[in-house]
Amino acid sequence: MLLGVLAPTKGEITYFGKNFFLHREEVLEDINFSSTYTNLPWNITVKENLTFISYLYSIKNRKKRVAEIIETFKLEELQNKPMSDLSAGQLTRVNIAKSFLNYPKILLLDEPTASLDIDIADYIRKFLLKQKDKWNTSIIITSHNMAEVEEISDRVIIINAGKVVANDTPENLAKSIQMSHIKLLIKEGLKKAIEYCIKKNISHIISNRYITVDIAEKNIGDFLKDLAEHEISYEEISIDKPTLEDYFFQVIEKK
Amino acid sequence: MKIHRIYAVILRYLYYFKHSYDRISDAFYWPAMDLLLWGLTGYYFASINHNAVNAVSGVITAMVFWIFIWRAQYEITINLLTELWDKNLINFFGAPLKFSEWVVSVMIVGILKGFLSFFFAAGLAFLFYKINVFVVGWHAPVFILLLFLSGWSIGFFVSSIIFRFGSKIQTLGWSFIWLFAPFTAIYYPVDILPKWAQFISKFVPASYVFEQIRSIVFRNTVDNTQLIICLLLNVLYLTLSLMLLNTSFKKMKERGLAKLY
């Protein structure tokens, strides 16, 4: 709908203060997109795809821009291969590369790093952040990867069953959760620790000699004191602050 | 309309043409085979009945001109199907490309490939049978224009059905035009059709063109009134098919282009 390939039943979409449906071509000159779930033409080469798509936009010196994109996205070795010969990760990389052709002011990315190798995914994330600052590009990402969203987003909107259920910075959303995760490697008294958690109604997970509990940050001191009083000793302790993923689960569970 | 966007679509189909053996065989192999089989069959009949020699010339000339209507239609429907198979409609219409620009682009691709196949087949006709299809003289551009208009009307009509039902009815993309072929009277005069078929032929614009091609080949005369009727029918059908296409495209957008495959 944000690209105009699905007609809305009601409401309006505004980009740069302009009604999208009244200024479609003008607005789309400054927008681009990439989705893991759409293809580029299958049996023509990467370079041919980038070339014909460059002509869909009003770009100066298209040949130079295509060469820049090929270099930036490390596509030199792939440029003369047909899309059908590429791996899933390479296809995603080409799709993202294509989305930068027209120096977009707004970039719509749907699961941008799904199916990418870890190093390429990391490279793409860093690249996106660099482009965002360099070109003042606003990037709208739809993703199920909360760690990625947390890393690269300034603002997060969570939509559940078609309704906006959260709209804030990732930090603020995560902070709104009181619970921290504490992971302990129990040296002695694992049974007592489990009984204690059950008695105090503390959510916990056991894995070998490890116990992970969810506990409010302000109660951590009392919790550790209680463990000592119950003669439960531990060798390792790690405390993880709440993440966006925790917030997401909390919101979904509430719903 | 922006020329660079029209060029983008044309470029995409030319790249595809370059890489697709199917498309290359469409452009050269089938016209060559048609010409060979029809020509040899015609000469066999001519060897039995010497009066049929002229008929062979009429059949081959009409067959070569049929390429225009066939290519015009084919390039529209098959290119649309290609976008469905490649899931490329979103790349087109998620960019500033207008639907009218896509329409113009596929018309231009049809013209380019129509002439490519036409000149190839015309060359072969001369080479194999010493038949000069340009015997129609200055009427050739008129015939070609009228045949393109017919091909576009059918192409847009079929495309509007594809927009409605997707690739599950893809066979129409290459077969629908042959429904019109018997009434178009490409290889024989309209007179030999049964009365009911002759009546249908009156509403098939291309039948007027092929009648006039035969008239030039056999009698060296052309009835301009028939060509004007053909033009009017073509304009009417093209207008209706474009309106239908536009409506189908808008309806498709209500369901979402991503759902069309």
Structure overview:
- The complex is a heterodimer of chains A (255) and B (261).
- Chain A is an alpha+beta fold and 255 residues long.
- Chain A contains ten helices and eleven strands.
- Chain A has a four-stranded antiparallel sheet with strand order 9-10-8-11, with helices on one face.
- Chain A is elongated, with a radius of gyration of 24 Å.
- Chain B has one domain (3-259).
- Chain B has helices at 3-19, 21-48, 53-86, 89-93, 99-129, 140-165, 172-175, 177-184, 195-201, 205-219, 224-255.
- In chain B, α2 packs across α5 and α6 (140-165) runs antiparallel to α10 (205-219).
- The mean pLDDT of chain B is 91.
- The chains are: A alpha+beta (255), B mainly alpha (261).
- Chain A binds chain B through residues 3-7, 24-26, 28-29, 32-33, 35, 37-45, 48, 51-58, 82, 98, and chain B through 2, 4-5, 7-9, 11-12, 15-16, 18-20, 82, 85-98, 250, 253-258.
Report the structural category of chain B.
mainly alpha
Say how many strands of chain A there are. Answer: 11
Taking Cα atoms only, what radius of gyration of chain A do you get, to the nearest Å? 24 Å
* Overall form of chain B: globular
Main sheet properties of chain B = none
Overall strand count of chain B: 0
Radius of gyration of chain B: 19 Å
Strand order, main sheet of chain A: write it out.
9-10-8-11
Question: Secondary-structure element order of chain A, as H and E?
Answer: EEHEHHHEHEHEEHEHEEHEH
Number of helices of chain B: 11
CATH-assigned fold name of the largest domain in chain A? Rossmann fold
**Cα separation of the termini of chain B:** 27 Å
What is the number of helical segments of chain A per DSSP (H or I, 4+ residues)?
10
Described by strand count, sense and barrel closure, the largest sheet of chain A is: 4 strands, antiparallel
